[in-house]
């Protein structure tokens, strides 16, 4: 973190300058903050050479360059110490996407026998700042796996998804949690709640499919239930690609023409002047599937017409 003077300076200008000026000056103040290297007097920092920097040199603050110079030195020695752990925190705050930083940090945590629950809390704070950072989520998963304790994790993913319904990393983490720790109870209900909040949320539909496929499976009763739910969603939002994708996934094994009620529903929508690409694509696939099963030329002609309308 910057010395207090940097924060004070930003607070003072907040009273007299425009937002753009404030952002510029605070950024400059941050760049002037330096890394306190007094704890590393015995370490020879390793700075990047011009060749290592590449053709296009990325502009970094002095603090960034110093932190990573000392980080490289300690990492090369594989030093396991409190100061190395603190340094990884500095490095992670400056660049949370650096995979090596998190790898080294986990190694130090393990060797020093640190409280991993506190590290999970650290991850939570980092995720609040960068909610879609793969490395932080991966680090968190490995910690939970080592702890073998998912307490609070479903609640955490829920809080993250409340901020962004489509946060892929939060959905992925939740999917891993319920699969690894067998936390299937109430997840079908949860997926339905999330779909109601945003029916176009493809992640919520995918999650629902994963839960069913991993538990009851799509037997006849479940399939019919899911079809009815999906058709109700499509009736409200005929262009909702997420719902159509889910419907296609449900009927794929048996073939769309096997579900006469679905085909009838789609034909009704078409008669009501609904011509969404997803609707026409489904009818084309259903008619073609029926033709391949029966060799009835009538369905071949219907498939051709649906395809022509889709292309136009």
Describe the structure.
70% of the residues lie in helices and 0% in strands. With 312 residues, the protein is mainly alpha-helical. Among the domains are: 115-217, Serine Threonine Protein Phosphatase 5, Tetratricopeptide repeat (Alpha Horseshoe); 238-312, no CATH class. It starts with a helix and ends with a helix. Its cofactor is Mg(2+).
CATH class of the domain at 115-217: Mainly Alpha
**Quick check: average pLDDT?**
90
Largest sheet: none
Number of helices: 17
- Poorly predicted tracts of residues: 1-15, 20-32
CATH architecture of the domain at 115-217: Alpha Horseshoe
Give the structure's gist in a few sentences.
By secondary structure, this protein is mostly helical.
Walk me through the topology.
Blueprint: H1 4-13, H2 19-32, H3 50-53, H4 62-77, H5 82-94, H6 99-111, H7 116-129, H8 134-147, H9 153-163, H10 168-180, H11 187-197, H12 202-214, H13 220-236, H14 241-251, H15 260-271, H16 277-294, H17 297-311
Family: Belongs to the protein prenyltransferase subunit alpha family.
Organism: Trichinella nativa
Keywords: Magnesium, Prenyltransferase, Repeat, Signal, Transferase
